[in-house]
Amino acid sequence: MVNKSLSILYSCILVFFVCGHLEAINSRPLVIILLGAPASGKGTQAAFLKEKLQIPALSTGELLRENRNNKTKLGLEAEQYIDKGQLVPDEMILGMLFERLNEKDTQKGYILDGFPRTLGQAEAYSAKVGSSVELLVINIDAPDSLLFERIKGRAQKEQRSDDTPAILEERLKNYRLQTAPLVEYYRSQHLLYQINGAEDAAKISSQIMAIIQDKQRALASSSP
Ligand code: AMP
What we know:
- By secondary structure, the protein is α/β, with parallel strands linked by helices.
- It has a single domain, classed as P-loop containing nucleotide triphosphate hydrolases (Rossmann fold).
- Helices cover 61% and strands 12% of the residues.
- The protein has 10 helices and 5 strands.
- The protein has a 5-stranded parallel beta sheet, sandwiched between helices.
- The termini are far apart.
- Bound molecules: adenosine monophosphate (AMP).
- The site of adenosine monophosphate has 17 residues, from α3 and α4.
């Protein structure tokens, strides 16, 4: 009981400290990019960070599913790619995401879950935001066997049309071809942090929070 209260108190202090720092030191909004294969745990961590940091979590997969459910032109065009385990073309993703970024709630920073997924998307995003944001990229790395295991569980719970072993195989192939090169792309810009996705979710969350704190400390010590 005492331990639990202490841990809640500690979390509150941590959030207060991190959020305070986000605004006080860093006038540029923090953008956290979550990279990782399908079912690597990006969505879980995005939800955690959204709550902790009180900034929106933007998932291009989720935005596409909303469009699909609402039967918009974009949603109907995108579904043929999604159901084959292929990536939706860059122009469609960029238009959809950039429109979302115009909303006011993104001004204090946001989390990107599942974007960018190609070099073209990463470059277009970077050209759009320029140096107006502080980027931090987290790559959640997990072995294929674990991804398949998780997809099986998720398919039963969420009933996603693309959560089948055959489509996952295709999504993983496309991930390796088109998305994995982003790890090097961001590493070469010194923006990348690696996380072991085989750890349990709570441990990953605390590792990500520690990375964010370190980043804020580094920014604080380098600011004039
Ligand atoms: P997710 O929910 O992130 O696993 O995305 C589900 C599906 O939506 C992916 O398998 C792709 O077909 C599509 N998708 C989501 N985000 C992107 C993106 N950034 N670029 C291209 N396709 C995407």
